[in-house]
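step: validate -> pass
step: tokenize input -> pass
step: predict -> running
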Amino acid sequence: MNLDLREYSVRTDLAVESKEIAETAHGGPVPGLNEQVEEQDGIKITRLDVTNEAASRQIGRVQGHYVTLEVPGLRNQDTELQEKVAAAFAKEFTAFLNKIGVGPGAKTLIVGLGNWNVTPDALGPLVVENVMVTRHYFELTPDQVAPGYREVSAIAPGVLGITGIESSEVVQGIVERTRPDLIIAIDALASRSLERVNTTIQVADIGIHPGSGIGNKRRGLTKEILGVPCIAIGVPTVCYASTIVNNVFDLMKSHFNDESDDGNAPTKQIMGMLNDLSESERLGLVKEVLEPLGHDLIVTPKEIDEFIEDVANVIASGLNISLHEAVTPDNVASYTH
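step: predict -> pass
step: emit ->
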């Protein structure tokens, strides 16, 4: 059974969510997806490989490798947990680089996508502020660079509405002049799940398409376009109002079933026909009601100001540890602004 996820109007940038949607529609595991899941210290790590074109079509994701860290506790602003997440992210990112064949000497360009004037979209620029850049030392004083560091440069190219230039065009010009061996692009994502907003980090080796999660499909940053391997790092900071309403229906169904000794009877009485609709049908109904009113908003939690700073530091610290052998979880604080 071949499914095309274009039939589903749920918008998400997360591979694990696309897999969940496909498995629900497929009625079980999707052939061609290899998944490893482990959980420790409140950090759930999912490694997902999309191995063939059939699986790619069914989940609506490009063939490649995806790693997702889910940490519900990140919302609590727990400094000790943030340090553990940074170390876990660094470990996973190092393994990810090894898996796709990127060596320790690869010259790296970090690209912070997004609008620094809009808090939920400022993740990329904030990470760029906090990563350790070294290219100028390698260019100007190479004999003074100590062992354990690699050549790293970083740029926050802004957004089309500010610069009038596509981010991909800016990065392409930089790649042509500086010739990095690897690009790491960081961007804010959209999620279909309230629980994953502000708590999830995704790494993928398939590049990135700015705005794809909110329906703006524009020229992306990929190996095919730039000629350089491109790794995408993203955190969901927003979801659609229609998605939230749709999730509420699921929560209500679960609540009514848990509160009753009579199975689905109370749910059917209270929710009526909504109880029998599939997720895509229900979401389509919600969007049909909201969009004419202009109410299908892109929503972010009120704590986004604190969170975006915290998760940017987590990612920057993890990258500093992973990219530079001289930086460790014990001394990373001295390298992160």
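step: describe -> The domain at 5-242+298-332 is CATH 3.40.50.1450 (Rossmann fold).
step: cleanup -> pass
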